[in-house]
Specification:
Blueprint (H helix, E strand, L loop, with lengths): L5 E3 L2 H8 L5 H16 L4 E5 L4 H14 L6 H12 L7 E4 L9 H11 L12 E4 L5 E5 L8
Parallel strand pairs: 1-2
Antiparallel strand pairs: 2-3, 3-5, 4-5
Helix pairs in contact: 3-4
Bound molecules: zinc ion (ZN).
The site of zinc ion (ZN) has 4 residues, from strand 3.
C-alpha cells in the first residue's frame, strides 16, 4: 500500500507517485480519498498518473474512433483534448471504481468536491469525475497553485 486505502496497479506508478512534479494538492486529495474508501471497506487503485501528450492523443483518438467520428475531425478533436489534458502536467490521476460498503461513488465524489473544491471561482469544475471513455474509472484532478489555469 502507498497509503491507507490507496495503492497502484503496477510498480512504475509508485515511482510517479513519488515524483516531485506530481501536484502536492492532488496527492493530498488521493490520500484523503484512500482513507475514506478504506473506512468503507474499499481500496482506491491508481491505474494512471503521468501520460505524455502523445499517449493522451492516442487515447483520445481511440475513443473518438469508437464513437464513429470520421477523419479528419477525429485527429483535430484528439489533438485539442490531448492539449487540454492534465495528465501530462502531473495534475491528474485515474483510479478504478472502488467497491464500497454503505456508501456510493456519488457520495465519494460529492464529499471530495466539498472538501477539496477544484477552483472556488469555477464551482462547475470538480476534483473527481467519472469517466467512461476508456473503461469506467474515476479521474481525479487538481488546479495548479497560483493563478487560475
Ligand atoms: Zn484521467
Amino acid at each position: 500500500m502507498i497509503a491507507p486505502g490507496l495503492d497502484v496497479t503496477r510498480p512504475g506508478l509508485a515511482d510517479q507517485w513519488s515524483d516531485e512534479q506530481l501536484s502536492p494538492k492532488l496527492k493530498l486529495i488521493l490520500m484523503w480519498a484512500g482513507a475514506w474508501c478504506q473506512e468503507r471497506g474499499g481500496v482506491l487503485w491508481m491505474t494512471s498518473i503521468w501520460r505524455s501528450v502523445k499517449e493522451e492523443f492516442d487515447i483520445q483518438r481511440m475513443i473518438l474512433e469508437r464513437q464513429g467520428m470520421a477523419e479528419p475531425e477525429r485527429s483535430l478533436c484528439a489533438r485539442r483534448l490531448a492539449d487540454s489534458s492534465l495528465h501530462p502536467r502531473w495534475r491528474a490521476i485515474d483510479t478504478r471504481i472502488p467497491l464500497l460498503i454503505g456508501a456510493s461513488i456519488a457520495d465519494l465524489m460529492e464529499e471530495a468536491a466539498e472538501k477539496y473544491p477544484y477552483d472556488p471561482l469555477r464551482p462547475r469544475l470538480r476534483p473527481c469525475i467519472r469517466h467512461i471513455g476508456t473503461g469506467d474509472h474515476l479521474h481525479w484532478q487538481a488546479m495548479a497553485s497560483g493563478p487560475t489555469v
